[in-house]
Amino acid sequence: QVRLVESGGELVQAGGSLRLSCAASGLTFINYATGWFRQAPGKERELVTAIDWSGSVTYYRDSVKGRFTISKDNTKNTVYLQMNSLRPEDTAVYYCAVDSKYRLDQRYAYWGQGTQVTVSS
Fold first, then answer.
1. pLDDT tens track for 23-80
2. Which of 10, 12, 64, 90 could pair with 68 as two cysteines, CB 3.0-4.6 Å apart?
3. Rg (CA), the chain
4. What DSSP assignment string belongs to the chain?
């Protein structure tokens, strides 16, 4: 059974930093690409960043470029999202998702339960 567990979300002031983690079990993590998505209240879920199985190919949406960094540790079956210079508009529930293909759509096979990030102004 595949399981993804996100952690690290909390309340932080604007300009602050957080590191989210996504721990995977039930699959051979090195074979999978990962995406971080977020959904703010009243808005559609959107892709924030993605990384391929090797960690050598990444994507960032424009609004987070230069502030967020995705990385993965295949030995720990964990993907990280380092978020710096946080803004109130980054407030959302953040989800990680994995798939056997590197993709920029939402058709990921497995999803975590989400972790809340709240950025106060």
1. 999 988 788 999 999 999 999 999 999 999 998 999 999 999 999 999 999 899 999 9
2. 64
3. 13
4. --EEEEE---EEETT--EEEEEEEESS-GGG-EEEEEEE-TTS--EEEEEE-TTS--EEE-GGGTTTEEEEEETTTTEEEEEE-S--GGG-EEEEEEEESS--SSS--SEE---EEEEEE-
